[in-house]
Here is the input.
Amino acid sequence: MKKSALQKARAAYQPKLPYALKGAVKAVEGKPTQSVANQEEIKALFPNTYGLPEITFEKNPNPQLGQPINVGVILSGGQAPGGHNVICGLFDGLKKINKGSKLYGFLMGPGGLVDHDYKELTADIIDEYRNTGGFDMIGSGRTKLEKKEQFDKGLEILKELGITALVIIGGDDSNTNAAVLAEYYKQIGAGVQVIGVPKTIDGDLKNNLIETSFGFDTATKVYSEVIGNIQRDCNSSKKYWHFIKLMGRSASHIALECALQCQPNVCIISEEVEAKDQTLDDVVEYIANIVANRADEGLNFGTVLIPEGLIEFIPAIKRLIAELNDLLAANADEFAALSPAEQREWVLSHLSEENAKAYASLPEGVARQLTLDRDPHGNVQVSLIETEKLLSEMVGRKLAQMKEEGKYKGKFAAMHHFFGYEGRCAAPSNFDADYCYALGFNASCLIRAGVTGYMSSVRDLCKRAEQWVAGGIPITMMMNMERRHGEMKPVIQKALVDLNGRPFLKFASKRDKWAKETCYVYPGPIQYFGPAEVCDQPSLTLQYEQLDK
Here is the structure.
């Protein structure tokens, strides 16, 4: 693999480890846990892995050489910066336990386990990928591990390779699958541990003990750099309104963090839209009024940040999507056999009166996008809905109406952007390089501790990396029951933006000023080299959340 000068310099970076993981470690059990909701249902579904205690690692004054361990690792779902460092940390941790330990990577995601497609990850392979972005070391995929036949097929290759632990690096759905797999292998006495690692740039896989998912820090810094560049251009030409859609299907953490970093004129927070029971027209009117007020000051330009999943949070649209999900899950073949024109009429005739009215009110293109193929988890693929264009078009119409009424005298020209893939495979920031390496190394410690159904947890992340606290929590602790594909299923509860939390309140206290004035911040590129106060800072979201620590 040919490397750029940056890659060569970056390869030499040595991630920092929490002090507790630097020598021999011992596992200290904390309090028993319970799921965040639906305790009886979750307990009944996970009788062997429910209620387990939290674990914290401490220095072990009586170190002992461990036995060699064969471990498998899977990258599951969309890419996130730092995934390679998780694998590198896991590899180094296993070799520290015993040099005879082996690590096998299952290729192209969970499907590699089922299809017995794998390769042994040796030191020369690992060293090629230290501190790099992407998931190309072993690839990733979105195959769901949820059927007994898959579990049994995977167990065949695990037994053949002598693998006694499997690490699944993924988001909330992937780690839900990890919990189900751990429960099944425990139930049948398979002798295979399953450990999860929290990954998603969306930032919605977290709680008190999983303070952030890896990749969020890097992705938001990459997006903030580009938003800053756009704002600088915007403030130079002074003639365009830029509508910028940002990744985040089920939560607005990315949009909020980028707003805190860049101070745009408008940032819509989906959770607030839902809490206030706002309609699509309410959102349009809010943006249009800001455009008009800035025009009164001679400022016919600005930036608008829009979360990818906004449409799903508008209450009327959310109710529509919920009914559509059940309707299409139950009648998939019948619906697929119809022409696009027939599909629209079929949907209208099968929806409740309220939801049929909402469906009919949407632009035809958007309405059709709500009925397109679901993702593997049964969700609308909201990234396919061009919300940024929908909003700018509706704002343009609203402004034209306001002009006729004498309430607006400015000029409105819109530009559109969607930042998603640009941030998913970036070389990890120092924070993510350290955090991911620690998560992987920590996973090896959980394996040696003999636990299963746990997620690797590294916390106190606003302190120096050496002071981070390492351990693990039962995945069942994060679960509740939700409707998927028309059925109630156990899943990890997504962490949404807390409207009473400090990050949002900080944003809310400033947004009126940002709306009226041009207060743009230009963060610049990720700083890999230089003073720690520039290079090693965690996201503003984390810093505001942990002000008291």
User: Anything to note?
Assistant: Residues 235 and 301 are 8 Å apart (CA to CA). The radius of gyration is 24 Å. Residues 216-237 form the longest helix (22 residues).
